[in-house]
Description:
By secondary structure, the chain is α/β, with parallel strands linked by helices. It has 11 helices and 11 strands. It has helices at about 1-20, 85-95, 125-130, 145-155, 160-175, 180, 195-205, 225-240, 250-255, 275-280, 285-290, and strands at about 40, 45-60, 60-70, 75-80, 105-110, 115, 130-135, 215, 245, 260-265, 270-275. The model is unreliable at about 1-10 and about 15-25 (pLDDT under 50).
Amino acid sequence: xxxxxxxxxxxxxxxxxxxxxxxxxxxxxxxxxxxxxxxxxxxxxxxxxxxxxxxxxxxxxxxxxxxxxxxxxxxxxxxxxxxxxxxxxxxxxxxxxxxxxxxxxxxxxxxxxxxxxxxxxxxxxxxxxxxxxxxxxxxxxxxxxxxxxxxxxxxxxxxxxxxxxxxxxxxxxxxxxxxxxxxxxxxxxxxxxxxxxxxxxxxxxxxxxxxxxxxxxxxxxxxxxxxxxxxxxxxxxxxxxxxxxxxxxxxxxxxxxxxxxxxxxxxxxxxxxxxxxxxxxxxxxxxxxxxxxxxx
Length: 296
């Protein structure tokens, strides 16, 4: 499971590292001062994830600058901002996917409940079971639908008997809104599904190991509007059981699915607030400029 993730992660990270630190489209906003600290409500009571002074580097290039943020339990938080602003890099730091990139360094305090995510003694495989990830492009394994979902539970020893594994697979596919569409072809290749179905299969594979947090990196960017609508409905349903952080380039999507929205600009977290406030009454000029389409 990690092999497929690592390949996708390396490709995305290479793209991020190759991007200029200042996008041409944003030069017109460079005279606007950054806030001394993140505007709005970056912190919550009893957070599921507590992130303080996070800095991320690709070799000598700093991609994330001193970001502090809480992610609440059963919250859906959207990370938005122009291409190359660091939102995907920040997301990948939350389950140490950046560990697979030799030139990447992460500094700061990142906690899941009371667990230090960057404790050298931490089992990273176990962490990625607790903090699962869904990528931009659906990446089902070249296995059957059943085996795609069963892979994680088998790896982590979550089912001793076939009956138990069958139950996990069915429940995961039901939660992902896919069971009725595939129940009669569980042993067909997962790669034979449509794009939207493949993405829901990947979501089922992620939640099959009972994660506490689900990270989604532009999960609908490769999907048509109908498939996107199904994923968005699914996000709302999953938030009853999981904490969800989603990177999206679609402000409309962020407005539809999230409780809070965080705006990133050139690696800095400019503003975090409840989603309605961000999109109707943003508190910082950079946020307003992006929301109103002045750049990005």
